[in-house]
Design brief:
Length: about 270
Amino acid sequence: MRRYLLLICIMLVCVAWIPQTTEANNMTFQSISVPNDKVTNGRVLVPIRAVSEYMNGIVNWNKTDNTIKISKNEREVKLQINSKSAQINGEFYTLDVPAKVERGVTYVPIRFVGEALGLSVEWLPRERLAILVDYELQKRIDVIVEPPLSLEDAVAIMNKVSIAYDLSGIKQKQQHLRPYFTERMIQEILSSGGLKQFPDNLKLPFISFASDKNPSYLYGNDQMMFISRSVMVEQAGVYASENGTLVKTSKGWRVEVVRWEFDYPH
């Protein structure tokens, strides 16, 4: 049977933030998502108004000096765009990552602002989830950070692996392979004369795994993704598994490793 890598992922719904408010256990809940590029030096940046105003904070913007002031109860947080200097009730702090403006939306570091406003802030790296809670207001916000590579895009890249099966009629072999494979993988393909899925069964045609609609996947980090797929091979009466590693290069995401095996029934 198929071997799963791991299936711990949160399905993401949008690039911008989309509030979804429900109520459970007397706590009001809201979920927003932010793109993966809003993680800088390990710090998550969120739209300031999406968080502050939901938690009953007041946001004031000063265009003269590009500063933001966030007020909540007796707390006042002041930040300046593109500056690592910040203030909490007049006391100066140094940020790891400054606030910034993109397409008219102001983004601020979630942990610093959340804790400065008296919120509980928890980061769950495996789930790519930041949780902010105001126990006094009984409000919670889940900030979901979108993955570095979507499953849809990963599958599209893996579906291109078949172009490396038969290179006999290809003149510019490296150029043919370069859009989908790393340089290391290209050299492996060329040295072996093309990818052979099952060297012990060369009569078996190249198997496509595109029919697997529920692949298993796991992000090693923001530059690496593991993906596993399987299909039934009617000719052999077994399941075949495909395990791939995708890495982020300067030219985009590429296949670094791909291996296949048969899963024989017991």
